[in-house]
Amino acid sequence: MTKTGTLFRLLAVAALLPLGACDLLKVEAPGRIADEDLNNPIAFDGLVAGMQYDLAIGYDTNNQDLSLFTGELWHGGSYDFGDLPRGITDPEDMNGEWQDGHQARWTAEDGIRRMRATFEAAGAPELFESDAGVAEAYMYAGFANRMLGEVFCATAIDGGGEESNTVHFERADSNFTRAIEVGGRAGAQSIVTAAYGGRATIKVWMGDWAGAVSDAQQVDIGFQRTVPYTNEIANDISYETNQRFEFSVWGTEFENHPDDPRAPWQIVFNSDGTITNGANGSTPMYQQLKYPSLASGVPLIDGTEMLMLRAEAALRTGDIAGAFALVNESRGSYQMDPLDVPGDIDTAWDVFHFEKGAETWMETRRIGDLRRWFEAGPSAPEYNSFFEGRETCFPISDEECRVNDNLDGAAACAGT
To answer: Which of 24, 77, 65 is nearest to 279 (CA)?
Structure first.
């Protein structure tokens, strides 16, 4: 965000508002901020910060479960995750995942509505269309919807009835498009680039591979946008694998690739040279190193992931050499040796499945890829069998089914 330009725009709009709208600046005693006081451009930086916070919480809550659910980590701890590591979900176990994911979506979408209404009430709708904070809000709404679409089997939005998970992709596509438009006018290039990357991943789900490649080409290989954490708002995977030993890389396919910088880990040893066990007392502790700090951010978009997206598009046309040129370009950015070009399409897909998984390791994204490839069916070259005998997505939560009258009788809530 261009802070100086934004400040001038906010002050200009604030000058158009009734004087009472600026009471937010005259805090006489600590306490809750009245809802109407947020209808003020001076408060918008705080609104956007809240969107970022809720997105971070939503990603964090889901990332732990998804890492177990998709085989990125092994449960080696004392917490009860039920049958989730075996690919069996229970709506009662999804309450936090559902709530935190949808809160991230709602906070961003409602904030956008509030910002638009405030600018329009001030007679300055054109400032809404060129404000970097608005562009950032659209971007967060896009990423929240992408997560919900990839993770959940079906959805219900703001108390509505059951809908296909694909409604979140439609919303994300619109949100990312708006982030590109508004961010472009605001000169917020980082937001624009992230939104192009986000929209590319959505176009994959919508079957628009040409559009996905076009958007992915807008993201340079060195670009990365993360959802940030701090020591106070912690990355829990880091906490649970450093300060506690709840999750291990042992027992996963990544155990077989000990030197892959995209999915780094180490064996933890006791002082006598034996391998430390996890909190359950029996699982060898192979400690992930991707998130070494409580403040380690989780990538939302990577330029290297965009190369892998383009590689998948090439594989879908049978262009094995072109696909692996892109895979090796991505590997080269990590100083990894290039792979030999596979001699047949089935081998190419087998290799690609791991390469893409290593690229997006523990970023909430593996479920989306595995789900797409599995649903293509065994006769498709891209088929991946990981979900055989397992569930492929998270159900609508038990709490949502119980409080949402519009879900009465919904198939997604059967038995709750």
So the answer is: 77
Tokens of 403: 């409080």
Alpha carbon 384 to its chain's center: 22
Q: Which residue has the tokens 């694909």?
A: 166
Q: How far is it, in rounded angstroms, from Cα 125 to Cα 349?
A: 49
| Alpha helices by DSSP H, 152-229 | 166-186, 189-205, 209-216
Measured between alpha carbons, how far is 374 from 377 in angstroms, rounded to an integer? 6
What are the tens digits of pLDDT across the range 48-101? 999 999 999 999 999 999 999 999 999 998 888 888 999 999 999 999 999 999
- Residue 210 in contact with residue 216, Cβ under 8 Å? no
Residue 34, classified by CB atoms within 10 Å of its CB into exposed (0-12), middle (13-18) or buried (19+), is: exposed
Token pair recorded at residue 223: 């670009």
At residue 298's C-alpha, the angle toward residues 297 and 301, to 5°, is 115
- For the entire predicted model, the pTM comes to 0.91
Q: The tokens 């992930």 sit on which residue?
A: 288
191-222 residues labelled b (16+ CB within 10 A) or e (exposed): bbbbbbbbbbbbbbbeebbebbbebbebbeee
> Bridge partners of 152?
394
The type of residue at 324 is: F
CA 212 to chain centre: 17
CA–CA separation, 139 vs 176, rounded Å?
6
Report the DSSP pairing between strands 286-288 and 265-267.
Answer: antiparallel
The residue written with tokens 């591979």 in the block is 209
Phi, psi angles (nearest 5°) of residue 129:
-80, 0
Residues 143 and 58 sit within 8 Å (Cβ to Cβ): no
Classify strands 286-288 and 298-302 as parallel, antiparallel or unpaired: unpaired
Which amino acid is located at 253 in the chain? E
Q: Which residues have C-beta within 8 Å of that of residue 288, sequence separation ≥ 6?
A: 73, 237, 241, 247, 249, 263, 264, 265, 362
Q: Convert the pLDDT of each residue in 310-366 to its tens digit.
A: 999 999 999 999 999 999 999 999 999 999 999 999 999 999 999 999 999 999 999
Through-space distance between the first and last CA atoms of the chain, rounded to whole angstroms? 45
